[in-house]
C-alpha cells in the first residue's frame, strides 16, 4: 500500500484505510485485518474509480463515507466496501473536499472544502449535508 491518507480502526480490530496520491497507479479504500498485514476487502483500482481518496468517516453500522478529492465527491460504501451511492456530487461542492466529519446522532456530514489557486490553498469553508 502506497501513500496512505487516513485510517479508521473498527471495534472488530480491523481498519478502513484510504490511499493513493497524485501520480500513483492505485487509488482505493481497503479493509485491513487486525494485524494490518492483510487486505480483507478493497474498493477502487487503477481504473479511475477514485482520484485521491483522502478522508473517511464511519457511521454506527460501519458503512464508510469517502472524500474523493479530485473527483469532487463523497461516496458511501458498505462495511465490506460495496458501493452504495454517491452522497455528495461535484455540483454540490464549490472546491475540493479535503476533510469529513460525521455526526452520527444528528445524521449530518460535515465536508471541509478548500480552494487551490495559484499553487496554494487560499480559502475554505465547511458545508453540511444530511446523511
Account of the protein in words:
The protein is mostly beta strands. Helices cover 0% and strands 57% of the residues. A 4-stranded antiparallel β-sheet has the order 1-2-3-4, with no helix packed on it. It has a 4-stranded antiparallel β-sheet with strand order 5-6-7-8, with no helix packed on it. The protein is globular and about 40 Å long. The model has no long low-confidence stretch (mean pLDDT 90).
In short:
The protein has 131 residues and is mostly beta strands. The chain is built from no helices and 11 strands. A hairpin with a 5-residue loop joins strand 1 and strand 2.
- Sequence of strands across the biggest β-sheet: 1-2-3-4
Name of the CATH first level: Mainly Beta
Q: In one word, what is the shape?
A: globular
| Domains (count) | 1
Query: Total number of β-strand segments?
Result: 11
> Termini, distance in Å?
30 Å
Q: Give the low-confidence spans.
A: none
Radius of gyration: 14 Å
According to CATH, the fold-level topology is Neuraminidase
The average pLDDT score comes to: 90
Amino acid at each position: 500500500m502506497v501513500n496512505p491518507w487516513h485510517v479508521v480502526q473498527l471495534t472488530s480490530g480491523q481498519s478502513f484505510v484510504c490511499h493513493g496520491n497524485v501520480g500513483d497507479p492505485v487509488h482505493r479504500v481497503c479493509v485491513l485485518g487486525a494485524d494490518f498485514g492483510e487486505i480483507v476487502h478493497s474498493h477502487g483500482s487503477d481504473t479511475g474509480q477514485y482520484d485521491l481518496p483522502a478522508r473517511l468517516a464511519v457511521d454506527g453500522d460501519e458503512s464508510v463515507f469517502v472524500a474523493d478529492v479530485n473527483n469532487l465527491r463523497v461516496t458511501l460504501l458498505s462495511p465490506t466496501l460495496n458501493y452504495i451511492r454517491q452522497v455528495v456530487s461535484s455540483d454540490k461542492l464549490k472546491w475540493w473536499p479535503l476533510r469529513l466529519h460525521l455526526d452520527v446522532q444528528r445524521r449530518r456530514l460535515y465536508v471541509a472544502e478548500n480552494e487551490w489557486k495559484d499553487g496554494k490553498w487560499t480559502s475554505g469553508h465547511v458545508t453540511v449535508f444530511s446523511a
